[in-house]
Specification:
about 325 residues, 13 helices, globular
């Protein structure tokens, strides 16, 4: 497999952003301004060595792994269960930093609740836990009509995060990522990606959520940093990731900008890193950062498996 693979670029883009952010999670923006991150670090919040990724990447890899055998919601849900119970796709056979909404949904799955009914639907279950892991769905873009792609993205979000707002955030992100995959510039990808989902989100149950996304326009990039919130709320995370991506010119700049916002550093950087990986490519991720990543060879092998599946099957 060539290292120009978009699959590897996206998966590693998520993972490196995540790993860079892990040691700084929950640090404040003021702390990051006093001590900006410029390189990969270790220990910190979770006392993990450099290159350790979190649940963001674990669940991204669980999804990608399930997709290697085609699209099956139950297989994806099973992998999420194996992550929580058996540490599937963790860097060191240990689960840490599990989000509450995700955990509660997986516990339902373990009790036998179907994957179509396990996700939380309350207003307060709109954390970024499905957005952070949704990127592998973009690789279906060339194999499915867009409405079907969007529907599957919503279904995968809803395994844990079934509120329409979380499903929309995932749909918008994948729509923009799809444009990047087709070679668009960041600005053009955001414009086209937002336009593509518009007809779908004018309909129930999504139209009531549209006001929550009113800042998602190509002009988002012009907002001052003080108006960008890097919290775990899904809309904030999506806005912050797009703002970082639009206001930088390289993979390292994009993910470091995300981390130096403070707050939910690993997840905002993972979401940003997915887009930046797709746009700038695998080789644009600094080699020392790639080399530091735990289980790097396993991630490369996973990307190769998924790419092979995409080449041989219309999923």
């Amino acid at each position: 497999m060539t290292h120009s693979s978009a699959v590897l670029a996206g998966l590693m883009g998520v993972c490196v952003g995540d790993a860079l952010g892990v040691p700084l999670e929950i640090s404040s923006r003021a702390e990051r301004q006093d001590d900006p991150v410029t390189d990969i670090r270790g220990y910190g919040t979770y006392k993990q060595p450099p290159g350790t990724w979190s649940d963001d990447s674990s669940l991204t890899f669980c999804l990608a792994d399930a997709l290697c055998d085609g699209f099956d919601l139950n297989r994806i849900a099973k992998n999420f269960c194996l992550w929580l119970t058996k540490a599937l796709w963790t860097p060191y056979n240990e689960v840490f930093g599990v989000g509450g909404t995700t955990c509660r949904a997986i516990i339902k799955l373990l009790r036998g609740v179907p994957a179509t009914e396990s996700g939380e639907t309350g207003d307060r279950s709109n954390g970024n836990g499905s957005l952070m892991r949704i990127l592998p769905m973009v690789y279906f873009a060339n194999h499915l009509p867009f409405p079907e792609l969007l529907e599957r993205v919503h279904q995968v979000s809803a395994i844990t995060h079934a509120h329409p707002r979380s499903q929309m955030a995932c749909g918008i992100y994948i729509s923009i990522a799809k444009e990047l995959l087709q070679g668009q510039t960041p600005e053009a990808a955001v414009t086209a990606g937002l336009a593509a989902v518009e007809p779908f989100y004018e309909q129930a149950p999504f139209q009531k959520q549209r006001s929550h996304f009113h800042r998602l326009t190509p002009q988002l990039a012009q907002l001052p940093i003080q108006e960008i919130y890097s919290t775990g709320y899904v809309v904030h995370s999506l806005e912050a990731a797009l703002w970082c991506f639009l206001n930088t010119n390289s993979y390292p700049e994009a993910v470091l900008q995300a981390i130096n916002l403070g707050g939910d550093t690993d997840t905002v950087a993972a979401i940003t890193g997915g887009l930046a990986g797709l746009h700038y490519g695998y080789e644009a991720i600094p080699e020392p950062w790639r080399e530091a990543i735990a289980r790097k060879d396993d991630i490369i092998a996973l990307a190769q498996r998924l790419e092979t599946e995409l080449l041989h099957h219309h999923l």
